[in-house]
Each structure stands twice: as C-alpha cells, then as structure tokens.
Amino acid sequence: MLSKIDTKKFHTLIEINYLLNSDYKDINSLLSKIMESATQLAEAEASSLLMMDKEKKELYFEVALGEKGGEVKKFTVKMGEGIAGWVAQNNKSLIVNDVANDKRHLSNIGEKINFQTKTIMTVPMREKGECIGVLQVINKKNDSQGMSRGFTQEDLEWLEIFANQATLAICNAKNMEASQREIKELQGEITKSQYRTLIAKSPCILEKLEIIDMVAKTDSSVLLLGESGVGKEIFAEQIHLRSARKDAPFVRVNCAALPEGLLESELFGHVKGAFTSAITHRQGRFELADGGTIFLDEIGDLPFNLQAKILRVIQERRFEKLGSDITITVNVRIIAATNKDIEELVQKGEFRQDLYYRLNVFPVYIPPLRQRPEDILELAQFFLNGFMKETKKHFEGFSQDAIDGLLSYSWPGNIRELQNCIERACVIGKNNQITAEDIFFNSQIGYNKTSNEPADKDFDLKAAINVFKANYIRQALEDKNWNQTETAKALAIQRTYLSRLVKELKINNP
Ligand SMILES: Nc1ncnc2c1ncn2[C@@H]1O[C@H](COP(=O)(O)OP(=O)(O)OP(=O)(O)O)[C@@H](O)[C@H]1O
Ligand SMILES: [Mg+2]
C-alpha cells in the first residue's frame, strides 16, 4: 500500500474523480487528463495509454503524451511484443529501470521516432480482472541535484490507481454509449408503432402525396377532407413526418370523442381546482404538441363555444389553461380533418366562418377508395401481410374470385372497411389462398356504417363475431330447411332469441 499520503497526489485524485462523475461526453479529453496527472505525479517525460484490440490481438495508442506523442500514435504493438505487450499478455505491472538491458524492450518504435526510452513503468487496465489496455509512463526525470532516477514501487502503486480510474472512465463511456444506442432503438420502435405505413399506387394518391410533400415544408394549417376511412389521419401523419417537426410530438385529438367541458380541458389543460374534478394540474394537448403538430380530427364536431378558442390559438398561438390567467405561447402546426361537409355547416351557422377560413388555408381532399381502384389490391395484400403475422396464419395471396370481388365492390367504408374485411378473411380463411367465400363486405353482414359516423373501435371484433354467428346460423337454418323451431333446438337456444338474431344479423332465406 501507499506508505504515506502525498497531499498533491491526493488532490489530483479527487480532481479526476470529480471529472469521472461529471464529464462523460468527452472520454478522450478525460483520458488525456488522467494521463497528464499520471505523468506529472510520476515525474516522467512521456506517457501513453494503449487499448487492446481483441480481434487483431494488438494494442493501439489511445493517448500519447510527451514531445513525440503525436508520432507514436501511428504505431500498434502486438500482444506479447515489447514491454506494453508483455504487461498486456501477463496482466501484470512492471517497472524497468534499465531498458537498454531488458530483452522485453522493443526499440523499433523509439528508433523510428528518435526517442530513447531509459526507464519505463507499465500497468494493466483491468475490467472484471481482464486486461483491456495498459498505461505507461516513460523516463523518470532527474532529481533536483540532477541525478538520474528510476521509478519506485510507490510510483507504481499510484499508476495503478490511475489505471483504475481510466478503466472506470472507459467503462462508463461504453455503458453510456450502449444505453444511448438502446434509447435510440426504442425511440425508433415507438416511432414505428406510432405512425403507420401509407400504401399508394393510384395516380391520384401519388399526386396528393406530392402536394403534401410541398405543404409539409411550410407551417400552414391543413384541412384534410374526405369520406370516413379514406386515410385522413394517415395523411396527417405523413404531413408531420415530412416536415421539419418530424422529431417533435404529433398529438392527436378527436374533437367528437369528448363532451365540451372535457374536450376543453383536454385541449388547453387546467390548473388544480379549475373545476370540481380537477385535483391536479394538467397539461393540455396544445402544450404537449409544442414544437410539433396537433391533429384535430373530426373538427366539424367541435362545439361552437370551443371554436372561438381554437381560432385564437390559430391566430395568436396563445391560450390559457382552464382556471388560470397565465397566457401560454406555443409553436404548433395545425392539421384538421373532417368527413363532414364543412361549408354546409358554415352556411347553417354551426361552424364559424372565420375558423373555417383559418383552417382552410390548405385544403386536401382524399378521394374515396372506389375512385382509386389501383390501390385496392395493393392495400389488400398489405393488410393481409399484417394480419398473417398477427394470426400466425399463412395465405398465398388472393384467389381470382376473391380479387374480382374486392375490385367490384364499392367500399362505402373505404380503406377502413377493406382493412376489416381482410382481417375477417384472414380469421375465417381455411385454404392456402383467401377465396371469395372468406370475403364478407359490411353490407353483407348488416354493418352499414354511414359515412358520417365516427370511427367505432369495437367494430373489428364485433363484426368478426357477427360474421361467425351469421354464417353458423345460416348453415344451421339451411340444414333445417329454414325451420326456426328446429334450428333453435339444434343450436340449443330459445326460438325467440334465434328469431331476434336472424333479424339483427339480417340473415335472409335466399
Ligand atoms: N393509404 C393507406 N395505406 C395504408 N393504410 C391506410 C391507408 N389509408 C388508410 N389506411 C388505414 O385505413 C384506416 C383508416 O384510415 P384513417 O383513420 O386515416 O382514415 P380517416 O379518413 O381518418 O377515417 P375517419 O374519417 O373514419 O376517421 C386506418 O387503419 C389506416 O391505417
Ligand atoms: Mg380519422
């Protein structure tokens, strides 16, 4: 152990420990600082830190200080070669105070750079006991009387402490880098799951994409128009992703999903006590979207009173939380969407004209699927691939009769209906291809969603169950010649229940 604590050395250690805890960003300057201290405290002329390249089985100079430091960095040292190589291979510290007579010394580097090593002290850097590199200090300076000296056991013990610190710094930097990589990957996953893939083959959608590519670069408000399920939200995502705001939040608000009071606090936030149930402070969606994009879906359903407030945010980018008089300023891009005839709402006095003009800076109309048949099969295959993964089933695409069916249908529920149809087909399908028998359109299963209805999240499951029920009951009815009493018996249900199901599921005797 160290015989006595030298206060200068002790303070240097404290200083390096402080840097270890604070300066992760620049590992190289930290290692240089450690080596500078080691050189100074050992009263040496030069020093270097060599790291091990495990694959190449050699050491390379990470830090080299002293008058020839810059030149020496060009060289590498094989494992077992020279004093550094010997220390790395044996994982043992070493003092050589008579280098000229030590067989382990390799003079070629010194000769090339014209630097003579007289005394050298080398210690391993160990991570979990394994040598990952070495630290060495070279040529102990003469004492105050001009007498030459060698490195001492105490010098060695100090150098070992520095080696531990350097190892710690390197391990910290490695861990930090690994964590940052992991965070990036996870962020990538989140981004992946937050945004969906947009499929486009038809000329009219490709043209719309070109338009949104241009508008994305600006901060203009965009109003997305089109029937239900045409892809307004997925287009809104694309505008955000193609804009300079892409790394900032994309915040979605469905203006039809909440009653007026709740929607207001959802949009603008509230302070504690703003209303009875406001037991904590809450940030609103506008605040959360700061720097990014807010997507106001179903804007046609925005309550009249809130329209004035939204207008102000659009005009001034300012608002107050509920219950607060502090004005908050935000930088948000606004994208709104509706499947309603908004001009008609304006004429009827249900939608403020000034807000309409503000939102309508850049209207983009997304055509219904029936006007872009080129997209149908492309989308169908895309959805099938997704559902095959989810259900762990495999289909070799669609049979010709299924393709004919998909292409001849009018898709009143647009892409959402196509997506649901393919999901059901994937669940029902038993053959190696999806056939026409697996394909049920909403109109066939009694699900006539009008284009003005908001999205129904339960639809997928309910519809799939209804398809099963309807098919099963139809089969049972056919078996019993459409005799409901007999069929109810066979199905072990009440006759009245069966007749209700027949009505509800629109099961008709062909
Ligand atoms: N071009 C497309 N490529 C891939 N998927 C699409 C495309 N267009 C729409 N979809 C999918 O179809 C579904 C409906 O799209 P989206 O929610 O964007 O429509 P919408 O116009 O907002 O409908 P609504 O008016 O009913 O809210 C979503 O699941 C979406 O991912
Ligand atoms: Mg939508």
Give the gist of this structure.
With 510 residues, this protein is an alpha/beta fold. Helix content is 46%, strand content 15%. The chain has a six-stranded antiparallel sheet, sandwiched between helices. A five-stranded parallel sheet has the order 8-11-14-7-15. The protein has a two-stranded antiparallel ribbon with strand order 9-10.
List keywords for this structure.
single chain, 510 residues, Beta-Lactamase, Rossmann fold, Helicase, Ruva Protein, domain 3, 3 domains, six-stranded antiparallel sheet, five-stranded parallel sheet, 15 strands, binds magnesium ion
- Radius of gyration from CA coordinates: 37 Å
Summed up, the domain count is 3
Shape: elongated
What percent of residues adopt helix (DSSP H or I)?
Answer: 40-55%
Strand residues, percent:
15-25%
Unreliable stretches covering 5 or more consecutive residues: 447-458
Secondary structure category? alpha/beta
Strand order of the largest sheet: 3-2-1-6-5-4
Walk me through this protein's architecture.
The chain is an alpha/beta fold. It is built from 19 helices and 15 strands. The strands form four sheets. It has a six-stranded antiparallel β-sheet, sandwiched between helices. A hairpin with a 2-residue loop joins β5 and β6. The longest helix has 42 residues, at 153-194. The chain starts with 6 loop residues before the first helix and ends in a 6-residue tail after the last helix. Mean pLDDT is 88; it is low at 447-458. Residues 196-200, 226, 228-234, 337, 339, 379, 415-416, 419, 455 line the site of adenosine-5'-triphosphate.
